[in-house]
Amino acid sequence: MATATKKKKAKSGTKLQPLGDRVVLQREESEDKTAGGILLPDAAQDKPARGTIVSVGDGRLLEDGTRSELQVKTGDHVIFSSYAGETFTVNDDELLLMREDDILAVIED
User: Fold this and answer.
1) Given a cut of 80, is residue 38 above it in pLDDT?
2) What is the total count of domains within the chain?
3) Where are the beta strands (DSSP E) in the chain?
């Protein structure tokens, strides 16, 4: 079944449209200093499991041919599994592509 897709625009100017129940997000920057003021080298820094949704897919295709709506939307701040998703780079921006199931929570301000 072919469906029309809407193209989303990332901050870098490149249009990204994830398929199905996938989302594209940008990981938050890791802390380079501890609370005590010690500078951490890149190798010692943990990659944060927080990020901002850049683009969302159309939703999972159900057996009856309709699509389920995603629970997250562009701009949401989320927490996700540490090893979730595929990392890729677009115009010097490091982005993650993952399924909605890998997102654990939405951070509400």
Assistant:
1) no
2) 1
3) 8-9, 15-16, 22-27, 50-56, 77-80, 86-90, 93-99, 103-107
